Amino acid sequence: MLSQLRGAALGVLLLAPALDAQQPLQQADLPTRLAHVRRLLRDVPLVDGHNDLPWAMRQYANAPLDVDAYDLTKPTPGHTDLARLRTGGIGGQFWSVYIPAIAQDSGAARVQLEQIDIARRTIARYPDAFRWALTAQSLRDAHRDGRIGSLLGMEGGHAIENSLGALRAFYDLGVRYMTLTHSATIDWADAGTDAATHGGLTAFGEEVVREMNRLGMLVDLSHTSPGTMSDALNVTEAPVIFSHSNARALTDVPRNVPDSILRRMSANGGVVMVTFVPGFSSQRVADWSARLTAATNAAGQDADAQFRAAAEFRRANPLPRAQLTDVADHLDHIKRVAGAAHVGLGGDFDGITDLVQGLEDVSKYPELLAELVRRGWTDDELRGVMGRNVLRALEQAEQVAARLQRARPASTKTIHQLDGRRSR
Question: What are the catalytic residues?
């Protein structure tokens, strides 16, 4: 089947109209721009920073946690399957092994291990499509061999339960980035969508970042507060990433990255991977969501009253649709403020319900890249946003790790020693 998919993609290239030598590429029609993007994707892996397929499998109504039942060789109920991954040109994927922040109160490590198990079994089940690729070079090699280089991203530092030993164990299981927080502030780091109780990172939080540097695990600052972002940048010796965040200057929500942080990406070498979440991509959608929340809260504490208020608001105020061009605007802004070498893609597919018009599933990445062509992005800039930028960051993190492992042993510091707080 995969050879048929490759043949179909080649057919698209052969049937695409030739570009007039006198016509600037950005003025060409969409089929021509798409053909140009697909030619670039043959040589450069498109590396996406965040896909929640393992959580979609966990919650699959027909057979929860059953990797075999959620058959990727067929159309799936979500946003991801093998055919759409190939159409989208995906060459590398950080599979998110997300667990809810509430899990920190009820055995986060167990749930985290289950999510890693789902992801690992999925990768093993489709060897013609996926390959473990736990270094930048092995991901490039997987792409060269026609496989999707696969590695894991852990979403939320609550999963380590305040243990650097657990952090190291997760690295050994294939985790190559950790998002320091998810939606809730944790014992050692402030989240962007919760109370900032620490002012950023605690002393133990800083030690977590140092140990991630020593391991070669990328520090992911999506979901964190500006204080946590800033503190992590002050501490880290390796590039950071934002696995799925947009520009706060364009959509003013706590999940997006302020320009003050974007301007630090050049010195750090990090990458902001733009996401396709409508409420992070469009101020119109963000404003609608804020009004919906206000209408619901105004109904008081009764759940039925809140439900009725939300339904009435939706009837009177249809949800606006974020557009592919909104996402491209964020890419343009981050390129302008941080630099073209510091932008990437992190769709958050299978982790969202509302969708950006034009970016409905994992097959749509070429359309977004074709829009960047229309806007005048150079081929080198396109190669960077496709995957070279994040692969460079990962490679630099590996180099930092090799140096630090020669210089110091694994940290045995505890949150009690550094913060005076007992582990959970």
Answer: 50, 52, 155, 182, 223, 244, 348
